[in-house]
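re: ur question from yesterday

yeah so i grabbed the chain u mentioned. its 127 aa long if i counted rite. heres the sequnce exactly as i have it in my notes:
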Amino acid sequence: MHNENPAVEHARRYRNGEGEPEAFVEAFRKSTVYLQRIDPLSLPVITIEGLSWLAAFSSPELLRQHLEARRESIDVGYLAVTGERLLDHYLRALPKPTGVVFDNGTGHMMTLPPVRGIVADDVAVDA
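ran it thru and got these structure tokens back, copy pasting raw so excuse formatting
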């Protein structure tokens, strides 16, 4: 039996107009997410118009699919962390401001912008 990441269901509900963004953020914080690791100390971010984004995935399989779609090597390391740890600790080590894209390229993709109530206050753009 496959146990789906709880954040996925909340993201689907929200994208279908039935869920609340707060419920998604809460589920994301409690879930395990997977991040591509470039080396032991680096995570890839993309900067668009002064705002950096880090891709986080609900499963290693979706991370691999994302890399394949980008025609990147799928032979990469990854980190498995809770969404809470990502938002409250890992983002502090990345360029400021950095938000998170959850399950990029899927029908339930969500963004977590670097604002209060989502990320730690000291990295939020609206603090």
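noticed a couple things. The first strand starts at residue 32 and ends at 37. also The mean pLDDT is 89.
anyway ttyl
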